[in-house]
Write a structure and sequence with these properties.
Elements lengths: L17 E6 L6 E2 L4 H6 L11 E2 L2 H20 L3 E3 L10 E2 L4 E2 L8 H4 E4 L2 E4 L15 H10 L4 E4 L21 H9 L17 E4 L2 E5 L6 H10 L4 E5 L14 E5 L2 E4 L7 H8 L4 E4 L23 E4 L2 E5 L3 H9 L3 E5 L15 E6 L17
Bound molecules: delta-amino valeric acid (DAV).
The site of delta-amino valeric acid (DAV) has 11 residues, from loops.
Length: 378
Amino acid sequence: MMEKSQVRVCSWNEWDPLKHVILGYATDCHIPPVEPALDAKIPNDCEMRGRCGRRPQDSIERGNALLEDFANILRKRGIRVDRPQPLDFSRPVSTPDFYAGTMFGCMPARDVLLTVGEEILEATMSYRCRWFEYLCYRPLLQSYWEQDPDFRHEAAPKPRLTDRDYRPDYLNSGISLQQRLDWTARKHFVTTEEEPLFDAADVLRFGKDLIVQHGFTTNLKGIEWLRRHFRDHRVHAVNFPGDPYPIHIDATFMPLRPGLIISNPQRKLPEEQRELFQRNDWQIIDAAQPAHNEPPPLCYSSVWLSMNVLILDQKTVCVEKSEVYQATQLDKLGFEVIEVDLRDAYAFGGGLHCATADVLREGTCEDYFPCLSSELES
Ligand code: DAV
């Protein structure tokens, strides 16, 4: 669904005034059959193990109703909201290299689309079931391209996703939590370095600098690909020991405005990687505790979706309604907090930040890290 009027694509960071956004749908979302990278993300005791197929219709309807309410909250603030075009996600994904029984869905737009300035880049993705997800966004991107002569629509090379992309030791479903923590602390992730892989939600945009999480969904070659692609940017790899399932940076490290980041207290940025922020007067503070002890049913994500906030401008932030501790923290930090009821849509792929992808934020490309020594530029 596409609203009319002239489109302009441009967004350099996570906090400048938001004007236009894409928001996903829960429609036809599936739990895909087991595949290597997805399997590594599902906790051992999770009820999703062994389940696959279309998600229950009542949960899809509830998810879509909440997403529509979220869209209306944004529209009332003058933000234009476009929606993707869901596919028949029950269909398999088949290429010469692999076969996956079904697709996934199109709720977390942030995972697929990376907006950097006047460019929107389709990520490679690293799950087989998500290989074709970009197609849901093509009608929108094509129409932006026709309306905005400065918009650059780009796509990263589609990966082969053969078994060589995944470490076989993660296929053992009996891996202990301690084993996972040991592995992720020494960057032994499920994805190998067979070819460049990244999900767009592993990237945070700080003007001239891109901060990219190395983990399950993004490998070092993916980060190197981004570095060669965004030649006018500085691309920094980060990783977060303490996260047994490191996918997507946006429930781990979240810039709120220039100089201020909330960071997941269970997933600390290593000391040597903090230096970049400290030298440039960025404060990294612990995010508030989540309000829940467990994620909602059939959800891949952790309780830390509490910190998956959507910033509307440097004074205004959308927070999930039940996340009272996170809301209080943001209020104390001087933000106007807008409550958004979205928890029952988490199972479709994430929270408020995940569900959206920027099309337009006001503002220009600034340098928020002027003090960079060459040895830190990696
Ligand atoms: O903490 O489970 C979720 C991020 C989803 N985009 C987590 C990360």
